[in-house]
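Here is one chain, start to finish.
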Amino acid sequence: MFKQFMLLILVLAVGSRADDGLKVADLNSVKFDEKALKQLVVKLKGGEFGKVCSLLIAKGDILLLEEYFGSANIDKLHPTRSHTKSMTSFVVGKAIELGKIKSVNDPILKYLPEVDTSKVLPAVEKITIKDCLSMSAGLRGNKKNKQPKGLKKDEIIPWILEDWTEKLVTGERRFSYSYSDPIIISHVLFNATGKTIEEMAVEHFFQPMGIKKHKFRTFGNGLTNPIDNMELRSRDILKLGLLTLNGGVWNGKQLLNKAYIDEATTAHATVNKMESYGYFWWVNQITVKGKSYEVKTAFGAGGQMIYVVPEFDMVVVFTAEKAYKRKLLALLQNSIVPAFLTKKL
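Its structure:
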């Protein structure tokens, strides 16, 4: 086998730790398109698709390919950017499962007693948790109206809903990839559970999944930033994809209700002809051998990608300093999925 894949196999063998929780098989044990993967790795290393830091590919629950570029390595934390939102979505699902939140169809104001309802636009009372999770609350404000510094925890949402919001957009144009929707969700979660997103994520997901190394950003008010800046190792990013692929099951234990994962990774808002949006998850389409397949995607700016492709029982992770999501999706469609179509463990 050529040198590059000998290196990949070596990385897999060295990285298979007793406390890691990932199942690993070296590439000698599977069937794959050796030429296609060799060309892919060479192109990634050469920077053809941007400055990619890592590529991990799993099928079923088994890690098959793991490659790091530049200064990245198996133990290095990487900023996941908006994967933080995708993790927040799962925390909402857990809060519902625990009975802390009744339903995504609940109005947000049910969990925001700090808001003076006499000071908000009438339609705000109809905004649901689902609306915010799908970036479809429809809130629009003046971009020049910046959030005042030093707001306390219970002053932020009143400022957003009472002061910043100037109008509500309804209908098909409600979707807006916004700052306000995830912030509202973070306060709903804290008021409902008494815990931050980080505390919920660690207790209900990271600890049972063996994710020991991580970082979150905390705002000055003490709440977790729900928008970006969660940092994880590439292998632990892969675990979130595998949890999604396997319907909330990790090592035989149901960490999150499958029905919620299915709902969260289903399209609820149309973004454009190529993309839809779920609950802080994106939904893409790829075409392989003339047939279209759905891809459940956690996307972080700069090329942080978790691709979950249920029809092929596959999870692919990219981390990057700077890479373009459309090019990475094209790689998934044209190189990665076809290379493993005939592979059987």
